[in-house]
Amino acid sequence: MSQAARRIEETVPVPKGQTVLAARAASRSFGPVQVLFDVDFELKAGEVHALIGENGAGKSTLMKILSGYLAPTGGHIELDGRRVDFASSDEAEDAGVILIHQEFNLAEQLSVEQNVFLGREIRKGFFLDHKTMRAETQRLLGELETKVSPTAKISEISVSDKQMVEIAKALSRNTRVLIMDEPTAVLTNREAEILFRQIERLKANGTAILYTSHKLDEIARLADHITVLRDGHRVANVDAGTMSEDQMAQAMVGRELSNIFPVKHEVGSAETVLSVRNLTVGSIVRDASFELKRGEVLGFAGLVGSGRTELMEGLIGVRDAEGTVEVGGKPFRLGSVKDARRAGIVYLTEDRKGRGLILTQGMRPNLTLLALDRFGKTMIDGKAEEAALDKAIKDFDVRAPTRSVLVGNLSGGNQQKLLLAKTMLAEPDIVIIDEPTRGIDIGTKQQIYQFIHALAGQGKSVIVISSEMAEIIGLANRVYVMRSGRITGEVQGADVNEDVIVRYAMGLEGRKFDSHE
Amino acid sequence: MSDHAATPAKTTSSSGFKIDFHIWGPVIALVVLVIAGAMMNPNFLSYGNVTNVLARSAFIGIIAVGMTFVITSGGLDLSVGSMAAFIAGVMILIMNALVPSMGVGIGIVLVGMASALVVGLAAGLVNGLLITQARIEAFIVTLGTMGIFRSLITWLADGGTLSLDYTVRELYRPVYYSGLFGVAWPIIVFAVIAIIGEIVMRHTAFGRHCAAIGSNEQVARYSAVHVDRVRLMTYVLLGILVGIATIMYVPRLGSASSSTGVLWELEAIAAVIIGGTMLKGGFGRVWGTVVGVLILSLIDNLLNLTDLVSPYLNGAIQGVIIILAVVLQRQKKAQR
């Protein structure tokens, strides 16, 4: 039984700074397409080695090679200076090399505890030793300062808790190398802080950590060493102190990034196109009131879970909502996505893989799904669809390997561009974009910012929900801040800055609501 | 990025020479079956035999076309066999009851046909509403209604057989036994429904929406698709098609009993799956379903015509083919 249990207790002492896992001239091709070219990469005990690059630069491939999910087609992997060929991720995990996926590997219907010990259950004779496993899970979650119960079902806990469970799962093993694929993408700032403390702790214990993130300030803060990949080549390999965030971004993109946000348009006293009064969405959003003007970029700031997404989903009819809404001065009936579309309102979900695009279908049916009625009354006009796809690929710079590629095989950035194209095909006047650049590389981000800017310039109105403060500040003419399901403040002009917004979001300033606090 | 974009295009063109079993598998199987049949028994391709096989497969075929839409949108209907028996029973009772007042004439047959369509539509509506409004899983709902319809026909027939009035049956017979230009009516109706079905699936918003819902219901909802309405429509459509199949079936025997339509639901589902539609939804093709129906009934026919394998093993052979069809689909996926 307790091979697993024993493993939890012991910590293998590894001298600091010694190379644990390394890729030597690793290459990888998929069919005729080479995505990784002779990359050297070393992970040392007690160090955080950050791996950065744009989407499609080869980060995932390198991580998968290191953790046994993929075999290199050239070069090899060394563990403790000896060549190893991991036949599978299981073999790598047995050797203490663990990858935490960006999309979690958790069984949704099982409990937290069952997931932590999945495949390595502790047994007492023939039966499971629930007590030990529960206590151990409790201890690990306690260390991670997570309040989630070991008996909670995965499907019922939040995304950030799932991340913590994944980390607890990794901690429960004798982890020598921990590979983290954008762990903070789904975490709030507070949760990220806890994660950073855990990373420090793991470092102190001699764990080698590979860390990826699109948030360069995190890299600057955490990393001891930085490797930059671009188009499958290693373009930089330096000590963290020697590279500024600007230099990182430049190395990733390969060109100078001047100001990545365009200069904002003046809105002035344009007419109000959308007016929302006392909108309540289920038990999540209460009495939200706001207005949107023509040609305006309106930001919605707040912490993850403050009700921004739910507010917009209530507005466009995928959630039950009550309240008074006027579009262009005319009353608008809530409750149907189709009605919202007819009134010129469209919503781009933050969950492009789960709610935005059908990953198992090609680009064409995805592109035209929302605005299918524009392609013929009874019969769909296939030629017109093809033409629309041509235009979308051109206008939105969608880079697909082939025209018939399944959308699930596109990179995150290209999926987002396709989702934008799909939404714009509905010819909206009001575009609501939820987390426009989540998990997207910096080059594509800039394209999306330019696009939002251009929309406002054409007299359309845009609502941007974002958890990235820089995005809100860089794009929005005016900002509403939400906290615990309420709009707590409105900020415009020179007040659109991080300090003011954070104070509203944290509840230090703004309207107070007794019932919630 | 740019070199990624250029190279894969070549791979697809070179792999185009390989036979894609996912697309052509069912067709190849059908062709092999026809050739094998013709070699084993010269009677196999005779006009009489072909007409017989096609006409008998028409009932399952018409139902399977509707089933393709249900399965493509991520649903399932286990009740169609019992539903057909129930509709047949109701049809016969109504026509028999009207003989004294209406007399025997075309009118009574038309009323019978209309009642079949109405009952089919209502039965589909019940299934669909329970699934979309009461939010009960399709498997459970239709398992329930399967038992209900089966029990109702047994009760209506009082455990025996309901027989159509003899004179009405004489009038109604040609609907199954006669035809146009030598092609039997059931075959014509099946062909027309299959062609319309294929067009609806491939070239209308309804078909596109079915595939979208079957792939990812959330995406469909966020893309302004009325998910519940489309789902409901698939069950209603299937109910109506079961009604049409029953209209073609009743004149064949002129009776209905508790053993009418037994296992039709499984044959219809099997045909859909063999044809390449995904059981979990998201992709469906009506022409594939037609090929699936033909494969199943040709195997049956071939075993009866030749003494190579006992006809009692028909079910076993069909079972192997269903499993093979799914294995071939799976392989295709793994290659990606």
Structure description:
The complex is a heterodimer of chains A (517) and B (336). Chain A is of the alpha/beta class and 517 residues long. Chain A folds into three domains: 18-111 and 160-253, P-loop containing nucleotide triphosphate hydrolases (Rossmann fold); 271-344 and 428-511, 3-Layer(aba) Sandwich (Rossmann fold), CATH 3.40.50; 352-427, no CATH class. Chain A is built from 18 helices and 22 strands. Chain A has helices spanning 3-9, 59-66, 89-94, 112-116, 130-143, 159-171, 189-204, 216-222, 245-253, 308-316, 337-342, 352-356, 363-368, 382-395, 412-424, 442-457, 469-475, 498-505, and strands at residues 19-30, 33-44, 48-52, 74-79, 82-84, 97-100, 123-124, 127-128, 177-181, 208-212, 225-230, 233-239, 272-281, 285-293, 297-302, 321-327, 330-332, 345-348, 430-434, 461-465, 478-483, 486-492. In chain A, the strands form five sheets. Chain A has a six-stranded mixed beta sheet with strand order 6-9-10-3-11-12, with helices on both faces. A six-stranded mixed beta sheet of chain A has the order 18-19-20-15-21-22, sandwiched between helices. A four-stranded antiparallel beta sheet of chain A has the order 2-1-4-5, with helices on one face. In chain A, a hairpin with a 2-residue loop joins strand 21 and strand 22. In chain A, 45% of the residues are buried. Residues 1-11 of chain A have low confidence and may be disordered. With 336 residues, chain B is an all-alpha fold. Chain B has a domain at 56-262. Helices cover 76% and strands 3% of the residues of chain B. Chain B is built from 16 helices and four strands. Chain B has helices spanning 2-6, 8-15, 21-40, 47-72, 80-102, 106-132, 138-156, 166-172, 174-177, 185-203, 205-215, 217-222, 227-253, 264-274, 286-305, 314-335, and strands at residues 161-163, 179-180, 183-184, 255-257. In chain B, helix 3 runs parallel beside helix 15, helix 4 packs antiparallel against helix 13 (227-253) and helix 4 runs antiparallel to helix 15 (286-305). The longest helix of chain B is centred in the middle third of the chain and has 27 residues, at 106-132. Chain B is globular. Chain B starts with a helix and ends with a helix. In chain B, 47% of the residues are buried. Mean pLDDT of chain B is 87; it is low at 1-16. Classes of the chains: A alpha/beta (517), B mainly alpha (336). Chain A binds chain B through residues 31-33, 35, 56, 231, 318, 336-338, 340-341, 347, 349, 351, 354-361, 365, 369-370, 372-373, 378-380, 382, 399-402, 404, 406, 409, 422, and chain B through 1, 3-5, 7-12, 199, 203-205, 208-209, 211-212, 215-216, 218-226, 282-283, 336.
